[in-house]
């Protein structure tokens, strides 16, 4: 996968693709469990896909520890050196 | 059908990906995740999915962590024994084992672990040979190919007990998907290859014997790897054939004498080297080998030849030729058309048997009459009562035989096993031999004797390799004699037409059987069958201890 530079839009693109939700249903305040397919396994898949897309690596405790769009986005931005 | 995934580690992501691939195919499987550490207990506990659904396929997707357990040897042995006793004849796919070399250990300890893994895998293979319902999935091969570093991630193992990383689970699912697909797919049987710029680099007619390359040179190497892969296919029972536009003797000399050529003329069931259309050559092969054209796969570097074969014979699978040619080296390892999970003694002998068939065809064209030809073959038909030790081969025949198959009923392995042990059924296995060779078990007949005065042949089938040698008529005569000896008054054959079994119908007509109004039931006039000038040139042997 080619590395993408972080932006809220590119984050959203990975999110809707991996969790198979429509872009219209995406909201900034979503968190794990908000819809049926976002369970802990799908969450791990999302984390792995975010890592691959943005070329970043989460700490072990972040894999299941970051539970919302806001938290995930902030960490991806931080790790990829972008400003939010 | 349901695939129940039994694992030692968390494999939910694997299951989801597998289900996605199966649905996209589409293949009629759904996937159930039996969960973490389910590989030993889950299946045998009351109320388990695996026990509840009799036709569920059990997939043991195991991780290299298991090898670190001190008693894994005994644990696996115990599991296999339990499977055989409690879930007989259930389809099982079982991952073989591999050691994770990153476990820090002195070399001596590592050597012991390697030996232990080899022993475990050997045990799995032997179990598979003894139990036709058990298939080994080469997960060790998968790990070697992908490299453990690329498909594992300690963070995911720590937080969710996933041995394989998310990316690794997806790759592994694709690997298992291919094996599941092989459970249902009918494998193709023949690979027809071109010569110039396919089996070797260069054109024999232009570059000459010393100018073509297929050795350890930059240009030759991909072709050498292709030849090696073709030899592997042959060992798995796929037939190889050549269709080449060339001067016959010049091209044949390369196959016979070229020091770098791995393939020799005897490796090919058919050699068509000349100037005719390749589609004509393939049609001729199909006729000689008695195989449907949908059994053929065609490999050729020329876009023109590929298009010609594809338009004349759309049933033939025409492979995309890799560009650049370096892709030849791995072309066949990615090809799924020949995939099959079961492997029997007959598979490895198939090439020799088809070569004999080609020799028979040439004898036939030389003989002054059909009868002379049959007589010269010195045909022997051996009939035995089938037993469960032949189950793997019987099941394979039931699954693969299309042309000479009276009903095309694909019995499940369970149903076949039940018939073999039920005294109501007389199941006969036919073995055909002649001066060219022995075909092995190539025919089957299920006779329902529920009504002691009226025997019904529920199905009769012959492998295409032995059709056309009159043994089918010899069998009818033999069965008529057996029926009369048992005071049976009526003997009939059931027939269900399919798109491909016209050969079977012709047999019923030629044998003088009379059809019922709906043509589903064909009766034998027992006395007439015995009086008929039955094929005297077939020697029939019957020996069995059940009688």
Describe it for me?
The complex is a heterodimer of chains A (84) and B (547). The N and C termini of chain A lie far apart (24 Å). In chain A, helix 1 packs across helix 2. Chain A has helices at residues 8-18, 40-54, 60-65, 69-79. In chain A, 51% of the residues lie in helices and 0% in strands. Chain A is mainly α and 84 residues long. The longest helix of chain A is centred in the middle third of the chain and has 15 residues, at 40-54. Chain B has 547 residues and is of the alpha/beta class. Chain B has 3 domains: 2-184, 3-Layer(aba) Sandwich (Rossmann fold), CATH 3.40.50.1110; 190-334, HAD superfamily/HAD-like (Rossmann fold), CATH 3.40.50.1000; 367-542, Gcn5-related N-acetyltransferase (GNAT) (Aminopeptidase). Chain B has helices at residues 12-24, 49-52, 72-86, 107-130, 139-146, 148-151, 154-160, 166-184, 204-207, 221-235, 248-257, 278-289, 303-312, 328-331, 345-366, 370-377, 391-400, 413-421, 471-485, 502-510, 526-531; strands spanning 2-7, 30-33, 57-61, 92-95, 134-137, 190-193, 239-245, 268-274, 296-299, 317-318, 379-385, 425-434, 437-451, 454-462, 490-494, 514-515, 521-524, 538-542. The radius of gyration of chain B is 26 Å and the shape is globular. The two termini of chain B are 39 Å apart. Classes of the chains: A mainly alpha (84), B alpha/beta (547). Chain A binds chain B through residues 40-41, 44-45, 47-49, 52, 58-61, 63-64, and chain B through 10, 12-13, 16, 155-156, 158-160, 162, 165-167.
């Amino acid at each position: 996968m080619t590395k993408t530079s972080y932006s809220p839009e590119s984050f959203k693109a990975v999110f809707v693709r991996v969790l198979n939700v429509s872009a219209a249903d995406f909201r900034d305040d979503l968190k794990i469990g908000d819809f049926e397919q976002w369970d802990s396994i799908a969450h791990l898949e999302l984390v792995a896909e975010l890592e691959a897309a943005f070329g970043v690596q989460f700490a072990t405790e972040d894999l299941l520890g970051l539970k919302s769009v806001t938290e995930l986005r902030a960490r991806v931005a931080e790790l990829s050196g972008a400003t939010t | 059908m349901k695939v129940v995934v039994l694992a030692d580690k968390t494999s939910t992501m694997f299951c989801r990906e597998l289900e996605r691939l199966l649905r996209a195919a589409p293949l009629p499987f759904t996937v159930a995740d039996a969960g973490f550490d389910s590989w030993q207990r889950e299946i045998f506990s009351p109320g388990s999915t695996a026990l509840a659904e009799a036709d569920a396929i059990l997939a043991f997707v195991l991780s290299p962590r298991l090898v670190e357990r001190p008693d894994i040897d005994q644990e696996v042995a115990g599991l296999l024994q339990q499977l055989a006793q409690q879930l007989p004849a259930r389809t099982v796919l079982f991952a073989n084992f591999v050691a994770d070399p990153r476990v820090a250990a002195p070399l001596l300890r590592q050597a012991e672990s390697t030996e232990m893994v080899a022993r475990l895998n050997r045990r799995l293979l032997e179990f598979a040979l003894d139990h036709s319902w058990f298939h080994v999935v080469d997960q060790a091969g998968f790990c070697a190919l992908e490299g453990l570093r690329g498909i594992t991630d300690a963070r995911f193992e720590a937080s969710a007990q996933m041995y394989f990383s998310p990316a690794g689970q997806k790759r592994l699912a694709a690997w298992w998907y291919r094996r599941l697909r092989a459970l249902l797919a009918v494998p193709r049987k023949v690979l027809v290859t071109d010569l110039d710029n396919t089996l070797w680099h260069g054109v024999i007619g232009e570059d000459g014997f010393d100018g073509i390359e297929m050795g350890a040179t930059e240009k030759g190497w991909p072709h050498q790897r292709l030849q090696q892969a073709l030899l592997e296919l042959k060992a798995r029972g796929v037939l190889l054939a050549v269709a080449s536009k060339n001067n016959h003797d010049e091209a044949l000399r390369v196959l016979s004498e070229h020091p770098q050529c791995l393939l020799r003329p005897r490796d090919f069931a058919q050699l068509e080297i000349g100037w005719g259309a390749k589609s004509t050559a393939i049609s001729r092969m199909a006729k000689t080998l008695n195989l449907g054209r949908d059994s053929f796969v065609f490999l050729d570097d020329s876009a023109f030849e590929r298009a010609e074969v594809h338009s004349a014979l759309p049933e033939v699978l025409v492979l995309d030729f890799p560009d650049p040619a370096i892709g030849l080296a791995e072309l066949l390892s990615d090809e799924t058309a020949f995939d099959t999970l079961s492997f029997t003694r007959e598979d490895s002998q198939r090439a020799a048997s088809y070569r004999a068939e080609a020799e028979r065809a040439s004898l036939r064209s030389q003989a002054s009459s059909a009868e002379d030809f049959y007589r010269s073959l010195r045909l022997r038909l051996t009939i035995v009562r089938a037993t469960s030790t032949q189950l793997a081969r019987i099941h394979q025949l039931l699954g693969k035989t299309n042309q000479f198959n009276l009903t095309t009923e694909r019995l499940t392995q369970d149903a076949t096993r039940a018939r073999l042990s039920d005294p109501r059924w007389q199941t006969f296995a036919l073995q055909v031999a002649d001066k060219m060779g022995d075909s092995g078990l190539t025919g089957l007949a299920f006779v329902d004797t529920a009504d002691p005065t009226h025997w019904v042949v529920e199905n009769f089938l012959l492998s295409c390799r032995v059709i056309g040698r009159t043994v089918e008529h010899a069998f009818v005569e033999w069965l008529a004699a057996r029926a009369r000896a048992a005071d049976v008054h009526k003997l009939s054959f059931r027939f269900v037409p399919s798109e491909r079994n016209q050969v079977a119908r012709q047999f019923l007509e030629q044998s003088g059987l009379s059809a019922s109004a709906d043509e589903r039931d064909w009766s034998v006039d027992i006395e007439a069958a015995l009086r008929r000038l039955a094929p005297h040139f077939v020697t029939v042997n019957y020996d069995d201890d059940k009688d």
